[in-house]
Specification:
With 170 residues, the protein is mostly helical. The chain is built from seven helices and no strands. Helices cover 44% and strands 0% of the residues. This is Cytochrome c.
Amino acid sequence: MDTMTSTKILGGFCGAFLIFLLGKWAAEEIYQTGSGHGGEEQAYVIDTGEEETSGEAEEAVPFAELLAAADPGKGERVWGKCRACHKVEDGANGTGPHLFGVVGRDVGSVAGFGYSGALVAVADVWTPENLQAFLENPRDFAPGTKMSFSGLKDAEDRANLIAWLDSLDG
């Protein structure tokens, strides 16, 4: 295989790629993805009998009520998401600090665990409210935290987990 043949093969691939890109550009221009038909409004809207909602969620139940009605048994099942990094035995740290007696404990107070420092800056004590906010989205509650967990989105799951953790130390 000589230089001229390899140059022709490379030129063929480059030409095919160029045609592919031009075709993609032409298709985007023709179909204008995401913008509708030139920004015009829809001429006829079918009434389904439902009013449009503004996207607001229903009135949220206060966390104190959720915590009062929390089921520690369900919280133990939610614990499965935390088990990979945390332990509930007193003094047994995993990737994260142990969570025995965490409710009411000072933030960043587990001996022998290297905290990131971001937690101490946002809270003093792990109250149920602080735990709830942290478990909802750890990175929003304490920017710079080492915890990579994305959070528990369901408020009932958070309340059940906090009730279970609170029941561990009597």
